[in-house]
Design a protein that fits this description.
The protein is an alpha/beta fold. It has seven helices and eleven strands.
């Protein structure tokens, strides 16, 4: 069922479908992690879903923001949200395949590429895959994998442009290795913890196209207090 929710504490609404998925905190964390400077003119969000990241980015920058989403039904929700919030002059969404990004944009033309990607590999045993096709494609590397994302980012980014992604901590070594193989040098990492007593399951990572070696590891980000309430650091991200 399609529902209209408030976008956190921001002065905006977002359309979502309860039968598919709602945008997660991971998107908000990525928006607050990525480096955005005043020189930034164009930002791309791969696998943008129903557009939470482009919408949240619009509160942080005047840059033109693009989003690419393969699944038409999810894309339609994003278009509806962007239009209703009068963000359509700043945000442009495309119903397209990230692997074909070269058909839509010139190389070396973006300052930033971000992505909240499918987290899980498909290992041949489909028992754990969701029966819901929409969820299955969003969560597993069926139509889009890590290589596809990095190939697209390398193509779009200007020299010195930023690539930022949220992903599973267990895949960090693979992520770093692949980023470097595609000439995106990892420069900043932050581990995310559901609670201070838990191991990190999510990591934020940022790299620079053709950047110099040298990485900064930020203090860990704890999402929830022991009583389940959000920490002050996360609450500050939620808007006014």
């Amino acid at each position: 069922m399609i529902v209209k929710n408030r976008l956190l504490n921001f002065d905006a609404v977002i359309y979502q479908d309860d039968d598919w998925f709602k945008f997660s905190l991971d998107s908000l964390l990525l928006v607050n992690f990525v480096t955005i400077n005043l020189r930034c003119k164009k930002i791309m969000d791969f696998a943008c879903g129903n557009a939470p990241i482009p919408m949240l980015l619009s509160y942080k920058t005047k840059a033109k923001i693009f989003g690419v989403e393969l699944q038409k039904c999810i894309y339609n929700l994003g278009v509806r949200s962007v239009k209703e919030n009068s963000m359509d002059e700043q945000i442009v969404l495309l119903n397209a395949d990230v692997r074909e990004i070269g058909n839509y944009f010139s190389s070396d033309s973006f300052d930033i590429v971000v992505c909240n990607p499918p987290y899980f590999k498909v290992n041949g045993n489909g028992d754990y895959l969701s029966e819901n096709k929409i969820k299955r494609i969003a969560r597993h590397e069926i139509n889009l994998n890590l290589d596809d994302i990095l190939i697209g980012a390398r193509y779009l980014l200007k020299n010195g442009g930023f690539f930022a992604m949220v992903h599973r901590s267990e895949r960090l070594i693979e992520i770093i290795t692949k980023m470097r193989s595609y000439n995106i040098e990892p420069k900043k990492i932050q581990f995310v913890y559901a609670k201070a007593s838990k191991n990190s399951e999510i990591v934020l990572i940022e790299g620079v196209k053709n950047g110099k070696s040298g990485i900064k590891v930020l203090p860990g980000l704890v999402v929830s207090n022991d009583d389940g309430s959000y920490t002050l650091e996360v609450k500050k991200m939620f808007g006014k």
